[in-house]
């Protein structure tokens, strides 16, 4: 988790302090690390019930104009003509897609979710402090294209409700809730926004508050992201807290975000992906490969560097044998069986919702878990190494305190709910 001197506060800063949040400087903002119930309970609540995250430190970049598609098609890694679903349908209004912005060396500038609002209007949700960077990047490559790029940093309020009870909670907060939620597939949204950040009236919450709601979120579990105006975000937050209390919802901080994302095989931007080649990692789906993986279906910034890469580091997920973890605040290295350093540890957390029984990982949410299963937590994360490893292979991670043995795996937390059919969750 990147830390730096904070100078900004989200609209919920005072609420966090009044409710006992342990605050941390993160991405230029003072953000809650955890609340009095603790990061473990916050993590488990998202898996079993629901959690609410302040994500107003993230920002929106709006791209509009007749050539908006062409600019994004060149600057964003996903092929917008064939990026939706198993049928490779084109991006269309009401749908969104995860991808990456690369520089010309193939390294990551930022990952983001791109939303198509209308035929010539697009919204991009980027990470904390990256609004100006991505806006500058898009303008750099705009050329003669007729496009307007607007950085809406600190002009939009944003919160995430995550967990299996999320939709049921929103039923009590949204007007025409069933109409809005019933047909929301994964990575679709309802609502409109213009280049000034003004929201349309398609989605209305209690007290006639306009909102924008997408079936996305950064925990890997079922849930939604909600965007609204800065002056109404606290009212929505407090309403969700009050309505969701009986459903087991609690506020959650950055620590639970990190452990949930990692267990769900999702990268922490600028930590698991960053200033190195975006290649040989678990997120290759964000690149527009052709069917036989020999070329890309389009040309984009960084594509030549990726195609020319013959070698490079490899990023792998891992799982430990218990909840012990190592610290990445100090140089944490990866050792092979001959004690040779072969790489570095990018992220190491403990997913407290999982455990191992009979050499199989189960989650507290697994339907077919053993009757006597009790999750004790397992360390997990990502390593970047200078050689190819095989799934099931063990390596050792070492910091200045301890050494632990971990296994390279394809996936970490099983039975995640992000892709569940929404009618089953209502």
Describe this structure in words.
The chain is of the alpha+beta class and 426 residues long. Among the domains are: 8-56 and 156-261, Gyrase A, domain 2 (2-Layer Sandwich), CATH 3.30.1360; 313-415, Aminomethyltransferase beta-barrel domains (Elongation Factor Tu (Ef-tu), domain 3). Helices cover 18% and strands 29% of the residues. It is built from ten helices and 24 strands. The strands form six sheets. Strands 11-14-15-10-4-16 form a six-stranded mixed β-sheet. A six-stranded antiparallel β-barrel has the order 17-22-19-18-23-24. Strands 6-7-8-5-9 form a five-stranded antiparallel β-sheet, with helices on one face. Helix 2 (39-48) crosses helix 8. The protein is globular, with a radius of gyration of 21 Å. The model has no long low-confidence stretch (mean pLDDT 96).
Rounded mean pLDDT score: 96
How many strands? 24
Strand order of the largest sheet: 11-14-15-10-4-16
Helix content: 10-25%
Most strands sheet: 6 strands, mixed
Q: N-to-C terminal Cα separation, in Å?
A: 34 Å
Radius of gyration: 21 Å
Taken as a percent bin, the fraction of beta residues is 25-35%
User: Which spans of ≥5 residues are poorly predicted at pLDDT below 50?
Assistant: none
Structural class: alpha+beta
Query: According to CATH, what is the class of the domain at 8-56 and 156-261?
Result: Alpha Beta
CATH topology of the domain at 8-56 and 156-261: Gyrase A, domain 2
Number of helices: 10
Shape: globular
CATH architecture of the domain at 8-56 and 156-261: 2-Layer Sandwich
